[in-house]
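Request from the bench team (R.T.):
"We need a structural guess for the complex before ordering more 2-acetamido-2-deoxy-beta-D-glucopyranose. Sequence and SMILES attached. Just send the tokens back."

Command: build protein-2-acetamido-2-deoxy-beta-D-glucopyranose structure.
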Amino acid sequence: MASSLFTFFLTTFLSNFLPLSVLSATVLEDLATLTPPPDFATTITTNCLHNPLLRYCNNTSSSSPMNITEIFRSTIVASHLCNESKNPNCIDSFPKIRIHGRPKTAALYLSFDFFWKYCPLTIVEIQLVNNSLKSEFPTNVLSCAQIRTLDLSYNQLTGSVPVQNLSRLTNLTHLNLSYNRFWEDKILNSEFFNRFNASSFIHSGLLPDVKRYKMRVLVLLVVFPIVVILLCCCLGWLCLKRPDYLPRTCRRRSHKFTSAMLDAATDEFSDQRLVSKRNGVDIYRGTLRDGREAKIEVYTEKVSKAKKREFEEECEAVFKLRHKNLVRVLGWCNSRNLRALVTEWTNGENVEAWLNSSLASSWRRRLRVVMRVVEGVSYLWEQWPEVAFDLNTRSVLLSGDDQEPLISQFKIGDGNNSSTNIFNFGLFLLEMITNLKPNEEQEDSERRYLEYIRVHCPGNVERVVDEKMKIEDRTLEKVKEAITLGLMCTDGSPLKQPSFMQIYDMVVSLYESSSRHH
Ligand SMILES: *[C@@H]1O[C@H](CO)[C@@H](O)[C@H](O)[C@H]1NC(C)=O
Ligand SMILES: *[C@@H]1O[C@H](CO)[C@@H](O)[C@H](O)[C@H]1NC(C)=O
Ligand SMILES: *[C@@H]1O[C@H](CO)[C@@H](O)[C@H](O)[C@H]1NC(C)=O
Ligand SMILES: *[C@@H]1O[C@H](CO)[C@@H](O)[C@H](O)[C@H]1NC(C)=O
Ligand SMILES: *[C@@H]1O[C@H](CO)[C@@H](O)[C@H](O)[C@H]1NC(C)=O
Ligand SMILES: *[C@@H]1O[C@H](CO)[C@@H](O)[C@H](O)[C@H]1NC(C)=O
Ligand SMILES: *[C@@H]1O[C@H](CO)[C@@H](O)[C@H](O)[C@H]1NC(C)=O
Ligand SMILES: *[C@@H]1O[C@H](CO)[C@@H](O)[C@H](O)[C@H]1NC(C)=O
Ligand SMILES: *[C@@H]1O[C@H](CO)[C@@H](O)[C@H](O)[C@H]1NC(C)=O
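Reply to R.T.: structure attached below.
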């Protein structure tokens, strides 16, 4: 039966129109050059009349109508493939397609869709073994629905196997998909699986691979825990050393700085970052990881455990301060080898420098600075009496466009002393008026300085008042009052010092009167 069908398919064309001698060297050359003989269409029709079962005879059942050119081309491919597959007698029968270990040839023939569409009915065996095929399952071979053997082993086919279409090939008894890279499929013990057997799917990728399964178990039991442990270590290290690398929401306390963080912010406390070095406090200008600039005050003195706890408490207190005239504390570091306070970096100039600029030429402007400083100090004394600060013309900065005075130096670990604070305020006030400072190089400089002012006050006040301020007569009285206040504050005995409440009231009244005159 097969033989007779085949006879209709090939014998007629090949012996009558395309004797093998006509075929040139390659299938591609033949496809390009050969054209159907004039009576080809009639032959096909005759063939179909004799045997309507021939695959190319069905006009309607196939999606496209009968295509004479394609049928002709498929006969060319068939004759070449018959020869390539070493069929014994290509004139009489064409039972098998067999291409082993010839990747290019196999891929070329698989690409002739028209050939597979009109797949000769005599073919019962297709073997495309060891051809390095890298595509998905070559579904066009399934057009040869009559095949009994399909061997695609030793290729690199991937993707899924069209199990349903394969199941429909009722004559297929021998299937081999071994040694491929198909995706794993749930075919184990399915009808399809039982129809063939496990030796059809060796290393095909379709069945769960015991080795791979073992690998997975190994990964799950060994590698995974190791990875988790490593991750935990990393996270722990980050938490301890560089919490600024953690997302903000994961950080428990963003005001806690570690020494590693401050190391990074100051290029390992490099000299370029050092701003000043005084009384056991080194001040650095640092850049935090989020880009903010910060002033980092490092306390270099080695202290006891108890002192470290005090340091922590004081830092906690200053961290809570919120006032427009107090510098904002960002956090602190109190680790084994480093104690430091981190505050916002302020770009403004300090009052000492400001006093020499033209901006400081009016009494009113100077009083405004004093007023703001007093407001900041008053906030501290009322709400945070334990917080010590350093008040002088260098530590008060004028920040921003509106030149807001900012007390920028806290004194951690010094303890607070209200008499000293009032003394410092008095000195600050006198410097604001006179633009003169105690000469630090001299011994006993503050006493000499105060003595000098006291000599000229109140009779000869003009001598000590900064000339840059154009003082009118009516304000001179107020300036005198202010100098008197400064001298009271700096009086040697604490008993004669005014209380802070008194200072506050006097500064307010001076400030208000200067506003009125304006
Ligand atoms: C062609 O179609 C007829 C019915 O139209 C069918 O019986 C026959 O099996 C088909 N032949 C092939 C080769 O598909
Ligand atoms: C196929 O269709 C053509 C017209 O398109 C028709 O002449 C021919 O008889 C048909 N062949 C068969 C086998 O139905
Ligand atoms: C026949 O097939 C060829 C190539 O596949 C195509 O170029 C041609 O248009 C088709 N002819 C018809 C009538 O469908
Ligand atoms: C058929 O195959 C033989 C070797 O098997 C080869 O010598 C011959 O050239 C082939 N013929 C064609 C037309 O490819
Ligand atoms: C596959 O073909 C190559 C040559 O192309 C050959 O060396 C190898 O032994 C073949 N492998 C198998 C399993 O047939
Ligand atoms: C496989 O079967 C599906 C229907 O189950 C059909 O749509 C598809 O065309 C078939 N594929 C091949 C290559 O025969
Ligand atoms: C299966 O083989 C039988 C016997 O050779 C044949 O009659 C039948 O047409 C074949 N089935 C298919 C789907 O080709
Ligand atoms: C699997 O099938 C092949 C042929 O289809 C047969 O030779 C072999 O013995 C079978 N193996 C098992 C384990 O059933
Ligand atoms: C499929 O091919 C592999 C490798 O050649 C072989 O070990 C296996 O027995 C074959 N399976 C069948 C069912 O022929």
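Two things stood out. DSSP finds 17 helices and eleven strands in the chain. The CA atoms of residues 243 and 253 lie 9 Å apart.
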